[in-house]
Specification:
By secondary structure, this protein is α/β, with parallel strands linked by helices. The protein has two domains: 205 residues, Periplasmic binding protein-like II (D-Maltodextrin-Binding Protein, domain 2), CATH 3.40.190; 151 residues, 3-Layer(aba) Sandwich (D-Maltodextrin-Binding Protein, domain 2), CATH 3.40.190.10. The chain contains 15 helices and twelve strands. Strands 1, 2, 3, 4, 5, 6, 7, 8, 9, 10, 11 and 12 form a twelve-stranded mixed sheet that branches.
Length: 378
Amino acid sequence: MPRTRQRWLVAAAITAPMLALVGCAGGGTPSDDGTNPGGDSGSAYGGALGTPEVESAMQDLYNQATDAGEYEITAYGPPPAQSVIDAFEARFPDIEITFEQLQSQDRITRLQGEAASGNHVGDIAVDGRTPINQMALSDPSWCQAFDNLTDVPADLIGIDGTTVNTYNTVFGILVNTDLVSDADAPHSWEALTDPKWKGKEVMVSPAAGGAGAFVSAMLLTPDANMQKWGWDIVNGIKANVSLVAKDAQTISSVVDGTYAIGVLAYYPYYYQTLETTPDAPVKFYLMDEGTPYSVGKQCVITDAPHPHAAQLWMNWVMSKEGQASYAAAGSYPSMPGSPGPKGIPGPDDADLITLLSDQDAITGYSDYVKQIQALYGG
């Protein structure tokens, strides 16, 4: 049995439950000849990836990649959950993607060495918004144009069409349901400042920077956020919270009942709690207004040795199936119409906080982060 066929069977078995997330939309996995007899859209993948036009374009790109001998993709940056990788490789079984944990300057150093030697290896860069934007804004740019086959909205594509907001990570409010009723649980920034919660809230310390400082800075800029929340909310939360050193401790100290409410709770850690202790007495809420989040971005690296395969990955990530795969693994989708991760609404129903533009964000939060650090004694 050919290697790719073996890997297809294994990956399909692993990801079958996740692919079922989009199967109800007429999806299903393709058969050996690229057709999908069980699908109802008339396209190669039965609607699992999007419209017939989108699926036809992606099938063409897959054929271009394999015709060019592009059977692998190398990505530099933090990998998604293995289930996401498995879903991609199950959908396109002749292409394998490998992630190397290279970020920020380490990634640039590697790319500079590849450019100097002419031996290009990296195809995709994956990271947070600022480092990917900096790659795209370099002269010359380390990112090439995204070939948008999946109807990605313009506001998710940045820096001259090169970077794509592929997924988000949300922060919210975690409540111990043994200690706080659903009716009484705070769902807004204002509610978190209520004096009745003093000493009952826990938050990761912003003193050293990190998520606590960065998310707090979002309440202060741009101007619309400052006018809506601003220092009154920042100071009100500070008056109520006890501090822990790590994001994971915010979750664990609410799970064990040490505190009733976790502020700026990091959803991926809550997701892990659901996976490992599904009966934990906790519930995660997005903010009624202004849920904070961090942006995950990707780009196809300039002079990528497998350009068709790299563009296929980028488009699959933004497809119905790709976004549902990220959601099923605990990441928050960026594409409209996508489902939310377990237990929280999707992007169509969430009121996400307004962020600075891509270019403004590179330096626009830094002064506020420093002020927040100083407020907490950092």
